[in-house]
Amino acid sequence: MFGPKTLLMLLAVASLSTQMPLHAQALRPDADPRIEKLVASVSQPRLQATATTLAGFGTRSTLSDTVSTTRGIGAARRWIYGEFKRMSPKLQVSYDRHMLAQQGRITREVELVNVVAVLPGKSARRVYITGHYDTVNSRRPAGADATATAAGAAPGAPSAPLVRPTINNDADAPGANDDGSGTSLTMELARVFAESGIEFDATLVFVTWAGEEQGLIGSMAHATALRNAKGVVEANFNNDIVGSSLGGNGIVDGESVKIYSLGPEDSPNRSLARYVQRVAGTYVPSHTIRLMAREDRFGRGSDHSSFTANDFPSIVFREANENYERQHSPDDKLEGMDFRYLAQNARVNAASAASVALAPPAPRVTTNGGSATIGRGTSGYDASLQWQPSAGAVAYRVYWREAWTNDWQKSQVVGDVTKMLLPNVSIDDYVFGVAAIGADGNESVVSAYVSPVRKMTDVLIKK
Ligand SMILES: [Zn+2]
Question: Which of 27, 62, 380, 434 is least surrounded by Cβ atoms within 10 Å, i.e. has the fewest?
């Protein structure tokens, strides 16, 4: 039970609960000046220069030439590696290599190479910022179109076997936006984080992936190896197509960005997405974050899914209005880019990753067996919450909301304690979560108390 002193404190903080929607409130009214400085150091001209060089390799197809010094994926990855190396001696730069047998869209044996830059923090927990540097041109060669259209125009007619035209891996695939934008953003953030002089608690990992266009292969190989090595990932901010403000539908929107995250509603991915929305409200208030309650666009994907598949929290940023005509084609050129917009998206990533990396780890709200540490208290109608202490936390913030809503409605800051009782707030009607707050005021992602999935017992029916 709580002592009278604790109870007084709880009553005092209860009055601080505000009525404003949480995403509209600043995560902390007094923003961390270190993060403000970091965000301000994102350079639009540098993003443009990086994307220009990347597009200049002609193609970066995973199956393209690796020998040339000016064209193909080999030249591109050696350049990215060299850039990471030049940025700062603090970055540990490496190639993450995987030999692939012929399979699926991998039409011959090939060595797949991710380029990795690690900025070590005080702890081993990792925060990733990523984009894929490989490109593809999957446009049908001239001549193939006519056959395909004729077959498609005759519904009900006996259909000829669908033959996919062979992709020419050496054809032009500049990939200025897909995903030169995410790659440039990742490289720019490696620079600003390494040059910031900030000592982060988490280790920042900047990766440009290969093999995305053949089925997320580079990121999957990396994330799977990491899980097998029992690595701890606090967040992966994946960026894929974040550099154009003009959609194929003619709509221009340079003021918002979408974040897709795999559910269910209180998954660590959704928690991370809500976190970015709130951090952006503090550090990049001119940019609107549109949260999407789905893993990705309809029937499409990217490297964040390699992380969620390995139980690492992960989200993907996507520009507000895409132009599908330019993607996977020789038309994905620099002229379709808006570098002011890309810089804004980079600032949102920078603020969010810095905030997670400076805050204590998110508190654990489960037992070692995985059960949520939540109960109904002695009355049977209260919310009795417990959590594991987070290293470096000086306080915690408890959140709750009605169960048929998707964002936190109320919160209370509590001291350096690991339990809280909310009288007469039923755990059946509300969802709860808790975040850890560090000495410098930075707050972790919220860990939600998730109801266990109940297995239905097989019913035996007598004949
Ligand atoms: Zn892509």
Answer: 380
Ligand 1 center–CA 136 separation, angstroms = 9
Parallel/antiparallel/unpaired status of strands 288-292 and 256-260: parallel
> Once rounded to an integer, what is the mean pLDDT over residues 285-304?
96
**The two three-digit tokens of residue 1, written as one number:** 């039970």
CA dihedral 378, 383, 384, 386 (to 10 degrees): 170
**Per-residue pLDDT tens digits for 189-222:** 999 999 999 999 999 999 999 999 999 999 999 9
Specify the pTM: 0.89
Name the burial class of residue 361, with classes exposed (0-12), middle (13-18) and buried (19+) by CB atoms within 10 angstroms of its CB. Answer: buried
CATH of domain 4-27+362-448: 2.60.40.10
CA of 245 to the centre of ligand 1 (A): 16
Q: Please give the distance, rounded to the nearest whole angstrom, from the Cα atom of residue 64 to the centre of ligand 1.
A: 17
Query: What CA–CA distance (Å, rounded) separates 95 from 393?
Result: 35
C-alpha 267/C-alpha 452 separation (Å) is 12
In this structure, the strands spanning 374-375 and 383-386 are antiparallel
Q: How far is the CA of 295 from the centre of ligand 1 (A)?
A: 15
> What is the C-alpha to C-alpha distance for residues 412 and 53, in angstroms, rounded to an integer?
49
Q: What are the residue boundaries of the structural domains of the chain, listed by start?
A: 4-27+362-448, 33-139+169-358
Tell me which architecture the domain covering 33-139+169-358 has in CATH: 3-Layer(aba) Sandwich (3.40)
Q: What separation in Å is there between the alpha carbon of 133 and the centre of ligand 1? A: 9
